[in-house]
Design goal:
The complex is a heterodimer. Chain A is about 20% helix and about 40% strand. By secondary structure, chain A is α+β, with helices and mostly antiparallel strands. The radius of gyration of chain A is 23 Å and the shape is elongated. By secondary structure, chain B is of the alpha+beta class. In chain B, a hairpin with a 5-residue loop joins β4 (about 100-105) and β5 (about 115-120). Chain B is elongated and about 70 Å long. The two termini of chain B are about 25 Å apart. Classes of the chains: A alpha+beta, B alpha+beta.
């Protein structure tokens, strides 16, 4: 340990080892977080929760959310491709999903439906990035138009009469560590049925 | 000072060459290190069933989640890919892997699936990037699903790629030091 280089070598690699262990510890520190902190659910006690929430400013915010169709703007077919344009209401408090190792949350709305051609169809209609540095982590919007149209290439009448489920999902993107995906509980998803005929052509 | 150091190393090397046993020992030492690194890499490839278990993010199309220079750990043993998964895929006959998120999945419930991807920071989906006439990605095009990330570590790879001479300099220096270092 007499030369500069040996000492530099020792310091640099020790430093890197420490950084690596800290990164692993950071990733491990929040393993059980998602199971205990969930954006909340719409239930029978919705009205009661809203009232309490408004009256008491509590640390453990009673987060409630809803995600449901507002209006179906159009359902058309263009050359074998069915396209539905719609808008929806969304209310979700994403605050509980954040902790110190989360850089951002990628929140998106998934529409899922079945067609004769494909058993499983899951498409993203709308997405939003909520960063840890954003002051407002609540998504509260009405009549949001879809970012990506609900399109099915399955041929004629592939979207007619289909039952479509809307589910909110979010991806935890850490500063360092494992990515983790979570979503609205399957019991609380809302769904709607597309009409059985296309829009009348003008 | 560099010249001095270099000369010192050359003296050491000459000394080593005279003593064949010591030289062989040092070479074996170096070989052990190289093969251990290779074993770890191949081991990861086997565990994750991916041809490239660790990738470096090269573009800004997934910002602000992944910046240029971050590394991603991939897992390809996941059979079924879901919507919203961050995946790394290669378009047929193109070399550069792309890291984007799955926007649409149409499948029969099993492995036969049509995927459409999009970068978080891009305005449009990736159809424009696919091969001419290709509308969807298949499961085989995907190299793996991103399961973890480490920041900044990939900067070294980017630097080595932008200035290839650095590769030789780095490897040369490392070999030199290992060959001439003395334990104890």
């Amino acid at each position: 340990m007499h030369t500069v280089w040996v000492r530099l070598n020792a310091v640099v690699f020790f430093g890197l080892s420490v950084l690596l262990s800290l990164s692993c510890l950071a990733a491990l520190s929040k393993i059980g977080h998602a199971s205990k902190h969930q954006p909340g659910e719409l239930g029978i006690t919705f009205i009661l929760c809203v009232v309490i929430f408004l009256i008491l400013l509590v640390v453990y915010s009673l987060d409630v959310y809803k995600l449901e169709l507002n209006t179906l703007k159009s359902l058309k077919s263009h050359g074998g491709v069915d396209r539905a344009l719609l808008s929806f209401d969304i209310l979700a408090d994403m605050e509980p999903a954040f902790h110190w190792n989360i850089k951002q949350l990628f929140v998106y709305v998934v529409a899922s439906y079945e067609t004769p051609m494909h058993l499983e169809n899951k498409v993203v209609l709308w997405d939003k990035i909520i960063q840890a540095s954003d002051a407002n982590k609540m998504i509260d919007e009405e009549n949001v138009f879809v970012k990506y149209a609900l399109v099915d290439q399955g041929g004629d009448s592939s979207l007619l009469g289909r039952n479509v489920e809307l589910r909110l999902m979010w991806d935890h993107m850490p500063i360092t560590g494992l990515l983790h995906m979570d979503g609205q509980s399957p019991e609380s998803v809302s769904s709607f049925t597309l009409p059985t005929t296309y829009d009348a052509r003008p | 000072m560099i010249k001095e150091m270099f000369q010192k190393q050359m003296v050491e090397l000459k000394r080593l060459w005279a003593n064949k046993r010591q030289f062989t020992f040092q070479v074996l030492n170096l070989a052990m290190i190289v093969f251990s690194a290779l074993m770890i890499w191949k081991g990861l490839m086997y565990l994750t069933k991916s041809e490239s278990p660790v990738v470096v993010v090269l573009s800004g199309s997934m910002e602000p989640a992944f910046q240029r220079g971050d590394i991603l750990f991939l897992d390809n043993s996941v059979e079924k890919l879901g919507v919203g998964d961050v995946v790394v895929f290669k378009i047929k006959d193109r070399e550069i892997p792309i890291v984007h998120r799955i926007l649409k999945v149409h499948s029969d419930g099993g492995l036969d699936m049509n995927l459409l991807t999009k970068g978080d920071n891009n305005r449009v989906d990736d159809r424009g990037l696919y091969a001419p006439g290709q509308l969807w990605l298949q499961r085989e095009d995907v190299m793996g699903k991103a399961i973890g990330t480490l920041r900044y570590v990939g900067m070294v790879t980017i630097a080595l790629n932008d200035y290839p001479v650095l590769k030789y300099v780095l490897v040369g220096m490392m070999a030199l030091f290992v060959l001439t270092s003395k334990e104890g």
